[in-house]
Amino acid sequence: MAQPDHPYRKQADKAFWKRTVQDVYPLDIADWYTKKFAIGRAPVATAGSCFAQHIGRELRAKGFNYVDVEPPPPLLPEAAHQEFGYGMYSARYGNIYTPRQLLQLAQRALGEFTPVDRAWAKDGGYVDPFRPAIEPKPLASIEEVEISRKHHLATVAGMFEKAGLFVFTFGLTEAWISARDGAVFPLAPGVAGGEYRADECKFVNFTYNDALADMQKFIRTMRGTNSKMRFLLTVSPVPLMATATANQVVVATTYSKAVLRAVAGRLAETMPFVDYFPSFEIISSPVMGGYFYGPDKRGVSRHGVEHVMRQFFREHVPPAQKLPQEKPLAAAPDDDEVQCEEELLRIFGEDAAG
């Protein structure tokens, strides 16, 4: 007797938990990702939260056409590159945690938005409010901050014009915003410079609609500048270091990641030039049992980074001349070796505990 037909009958094995996960060793779980389009030799630019630094390093190491519009000065020792914000991403913008921060970076680079805040005072000098940790020491004057920022934004505008693929890693939904003009800061004033005043800076926890609208506007802006640009979105698997909401930090983390994952999925489903890579799921899924997190249950180990990138490179095969078959993945530093402004909030957690 013929079995009745139903929608699941034609589904591939990867659609079924029992065939894909239940009796499979976690590291052998396959079919995490199928690319929507090839990277090829397209110029690739990266930005995002701390985990994005790993992705950029791997793309560069594997011989992709990686864009770096702000390379380090020739005389700066390699050991100091990260300390000065070089090599983290395709430009020295530091970590970009939210879609609104990314959108405003584009608007500032294209001359569409000039924030009121020019510089924050810190330790007898000044820092850029929009990348306060990009230099190891404050600059001597506000004028130096503005000269550095002007050069930086010009290079970012050039990056947007050049990039054929823009890889962005979502990090948070929480942000601190100027009450005067809506400018988004990567950190609250007072954490890495400046002075917190409740009447001048407000906390916001972006909603799904906020984040989706910001990303749609960013993509429209980019495609207006560079009609060939495509986008690859990921969500960082790294939990929040601290939350400014009334929620417990794990609950706050779940909100942020759920919103951003939903936004990334919606964009990839509705736009043919947007793809989504599941680094978040590969690291944080319950089937992995927390295997890829360090002792703090937050930082991702180098083994986790390597496993994630193996899934990526199965689809996006690196240029043949750069990848002898026996060559292993590039050594990926643990999360405590990436530059992450949010780590500064650890200090306040330790103060509270002490």
- Please give the share of residues in helix: 25-40%
Rg, alpha carbons: 21 Å
Number of domains: 1
- Model regions low in confidence, pLDDT < 50 over at least 5 residues: 321-333
C-alpha geometry? globular
**Major pleated sheet:** 4 strands, parallel
Mean of residue pLDDT values: 91
Structural classification = alpha/beta
Put simply, the count of helices is 9
Beta-strand fraction estimate: 5-15%
Order of helices and strands: HEHHEEHEEEEHEHEHHH
Termini distance?
A: 71 Å
Side-by-side strand order of the widest sheet = 1-4-8-9
Number of strands: 9
Q: How would you concisely characterize the structure shown here?
A:
The protein is an alpha/beta fold. It is 33% helix and 11% strand.
